[in-house]
Amino acid sequence: MTVRVALVDDQAMFRAGIAMLIGSQPDLEVVGEAADGSEALALVARTRPDVVLMDVQMAALDGVAATRELRTSYGDDAPKVLVLTTFDLDESAASAIEAGASGFLLKAADPDFLLASIRAVASGSQVVAAGATRRLWERFRTRPTAGTGPEYDALTARERQILARAAEGLSNAEIAAVEFLAEGTVKVHVSRILAKLGLRDRVQLVVYAYEHGLV
Predict the structure, then answer these.
(1) Residue 143: what are its φ and ψ, rounded to 5°?
(2) Would you say the pTM of this structure is higher than 0.90?
(3) How many distinct helices (H) and strands (E) make up the chain?
(4) Is 109 in contact with 15 (CB distance < 8 Å)?
(5) Which of 171, 200, 164 is CA-nearest to residue 79?
(6) CATH architecture assigned to 3-138
(7) Strands ordered across the beta sheet of 28-34
(8) Which pLDDT tens digit goes with each residue over 53-67?
């Protein structure tokens, strides 16, 4: 299946380079380009891409606001957003994660890593720029924590264990090894946890855990 990608960046030269890179892949397709968040919303409505490569610093409507609007407008049917940033971890990139982005990476990332990230996000995984994971979670750790609600109470004891492991950054395979479970079983548990907590993906799961003082 071909992954449909929308490019959103205010630099035409940058968009052209990324479009050429993506166009060289048989399983990826650029369905349109936009120069700011407002154009991005219209582009998504017109083309319904699977993934949006979203710059965070743009005029008119920035990438964070555009990501939030996509989540508000389309809910679970919103395209996956992969944020592009110049810095390892800035306020905008972290805010985009909170707004519903599936991850972020540097504009200077290796081309092969960019392509792999697009495929990963399209399949439901998350991507965070190398070296920024700990700082991202530390950003949420420093906030006042909120108490858990009835949605957390609905989790089973095993699901709470899996949530804690995932919040530590462990993959499904690593959780399976630590908890002596089959990897497929862990995947089912994670899916149920996301559904019960009303979260979209593992990035939001980790944010939830830090914001509620679970790690």
Answers:
(1) -80, 155
(2) no
(3) 11, 6
(4) no
(5) 200
(6) 3-Layer(aba) Sandwich (3.40)
(7) 28-34, 3-8, 51-55, 80-85, 103-106, 127-128
(8) 999 888 888 898 999
Adjacent-strand bridge partners of 81: 52
157-167 helix and 172-179 helix, angle to the nearest 10 degrees? 130
CA atoms within 13 A on the CB side of 88: 7
Question: Using CA atoms, how far apart are residues 6 and 184, in angstroms rounded to an integer?
Answer: 32
> Which DSSP symbol is given to 39?
H
Residue 5: name the closest of 23, 17, 14, 69 by CA: 23
**Residue closest to 103 by CA, chosen among 133, 140, 145:** 133
Max CA-CA distance within the chain? 52
| Measured CA distances, 11 to 34, 106, 181, 190 (Å) | 10, 15, 47, 38
Task: List the single range of 68-72, 129-133, 157-161 with lowest mean pLDDT.
Answer: 129-133
pLDDT of residue 57: 85
CB within 8 Å of 138: residues ≥ 6 apart: none
CA distance 172 to 140: 22
pLDDT band at 17 (very low <50, low <70, confident <90, very high): very high
All CATH 3.40.50.2300 domain ranges in the chain, comma separated: 3-138
Topology given in CATH for the domain delimited by 144-211: Arc Repressor Mutant, subunit A (1.10.10)
The span from the CA of 26 to the CA of 1, in Å, is: 10
Tokens 């190398």 identify what position?
Answer: 130
Q: Give Cα 10 distance to the centre of its chain.
A: 21
